Amino acid sequence: xxxxxxxxxxxxxxxxxxxxxxxxxxxxxxxxxxxxxxxxxxxxxxxxxxxxxxxxxxxxxxxxxxxxxxxxxxxxxxxxxxxxxxxxxxxxxxxxxxxxxxxxxxxxxxxxxxxxxxxxxxxxxxxxxxxxxxxxxxxxxxxxxxxxx
Length: 149
Fold this sequence. Notes:
Blueprint: E1 3-6, H1 14-23, E2 28-32, H2 44-50, E3 55-57, H3 64-73, E4 76-80, H4 89-99, E5 103-106, H5 118-127, H6 132-148
Parallel strand pairs: 1-2, 2-3, 3-4, 4-5
Helix pairs in contact: 2-3
C-alpha cells in the first residue's frame, strides 16, 4: 500500500503536498509531528492536522485543541517505540483518551534493526498506560481504517 511521511516541511506546504500525494495515488499520509528530539518547525502538528493526513507521527507535547482536531478528522496519533520519540507516549495517550481521539501503535523504523515484534509493541503501549481493552480497540480501529483504503 503506497504511503508517505511528510517531514520537516514549511508549514504552508503541508496542504498542497498532501493534495498532490493523494492525486498521485498515495493511500496513507503521515505528518511528522513535533517530537521533542528533532528540530521540527513549531506549528507542524497543527499544519499537518489541517492537511489531508491519516496519522500524526510522534506528536510530542500536543496541545488539547490539536488532539480535538485529530479526533474530529479521524486522524490517528502515534504511540511509538522509537527512542526519543517515545518519551511523550504517556502524555499523548492521556490526551487522546481524554478526547476519545484515535491512536496507532508503531515502531517508526528507520532501519531494518528497528523493526520489533508485536509483543514488544504491546509492551510499549502498556508502558504508556494503555490496557488490553484499549490496545484491542486501537487494532480494531486500524483494521477498519485499512479496509477502507
